[in-house]
């Protein structure tokens, strides 16, 4: 990706984020939500976060040449609300390679649910580690990294403007893995101590032919606008065992 600066934004809080966190807290086996992952909308808080992200967007829009977004509703809503109706800039490019990690048979299960209903997968996950464990019908982190490598290798004209990607926490983490670059152990150590907050902005800057992390999961725009800062670390495979 021949741009000098790259901003990675996680979508605002979704109704599934709330349901998953509540289910873990209550010790449930399943997350009680009947919406297809691709169709999960933002929560009321998530919409407020996306509106606050608009403050960041207006301050940076002249520096953003191209915007990409996950096809999942929560990401598209985040960008649409943040950009508003000012009509400036090209439409965002929807790319399915930026979708969230697919969990297969473990979808909508809490940690307790995985241990209770698929103990063999819980054991495989402990043996293989989060990076390489692929649930049946789902993806490992390595699988997501592979599709992101494809995305990054698509030829784009060199530009003096930066680029924006609005997607998911796993996409943000694995973009850091690919671009900084990191090894498996360093990535998992970083992920264990850092959470990609909802509607946060992570910034990468290209220097001397490589990428440097300039800012991680910044939420100053939320604090300025009084929008809640929410901590939903994602699916169970993302967090430390």
Provide a brief overview of the structure.
The protein is an alpha/beta fold and 241 residues long. It has 9 helices and 6 strands, in the order βααβαβαααβααββα.
Q: Any overview of this molecule?
A:
- By secondary structure, the chain is α/β, with parallel strands linked by helices.
- It has one domain (5-232): 3-Layer(aba) Sandwich (Rossmann fold).
- 40% of the residues lie in helices and 15% in strands.
- The chain contains nine helices and six strands; from the N terminus they run βααβαβαααβααββα.
- The protein has helices at 15-26, 44-60, 73-83, 111-117, 119-128, 141-153, 169-179, 184-193, 220-225; strands at residues 5-10, 64-69, 93-94, 162-167, 201-207, 210-218.
- A six-stranded mixed β-sheet has the order 3-2-4-1-5-6.
- A hairpin with a 2-residue loop joins strand 5 and strand 6 (210-218).
- The longest helix is centred in the first third of the chain and has 17 residues, at 44-60.
- It is globular, with a radius of gyration of 17 Å.
- The two termini are 34 Å apart.
- The mean pLDDT is 93.
């Amino acid at each position: 990706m021949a741009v000098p600066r790259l901003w990675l934004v996680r979508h605002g809080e979704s109704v599934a984020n709330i349901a998953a966190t509540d289910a873990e807290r209550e010790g449930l086996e399943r997350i009680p939500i009947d919406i297809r992952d691709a169709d999960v909308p933002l929560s009321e808080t998530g919409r407020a976060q996306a509106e606050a992200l608009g403050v960041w967007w207006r301050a940076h829009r002249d520096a953003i040449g191209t915007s990409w977004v996950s096809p999942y509703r929560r990401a598209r809503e985040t960008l649409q609300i943040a950009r508003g109706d000012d009509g400036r800039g090209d439409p965002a490019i929807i790319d399915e390679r930026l979708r969230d990690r697919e969990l297969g048979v473990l979808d909508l299960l809490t940690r307790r649910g995985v241990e209770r209903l698929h103990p063999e997968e819980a054991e495989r996950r402990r043996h293989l580690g989060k990076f390489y464990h692929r649930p049946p019908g789902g993806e490992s982190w390595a699988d997501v990294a592979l599709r992101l490598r494809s995305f990054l290798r698509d030829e784009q004209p060199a530009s003096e403007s930066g680029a924006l990607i609005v997607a998911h926490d796993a996409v943000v983490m694995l973009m850091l893995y690919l671009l900084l670059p990191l090894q498996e152990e360093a990535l998992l150590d970083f992920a264990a101590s850092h959470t990609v907050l909802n509607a946060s902005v992570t910034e990468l800057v290209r220097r001397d032919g490589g990428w440097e992390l300039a800012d991680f999961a910044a939420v100053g725009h939320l604090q300025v606008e009084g929008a809640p800062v929410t901590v939903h670390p994602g699916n169970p495979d993302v967090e430390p065992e």
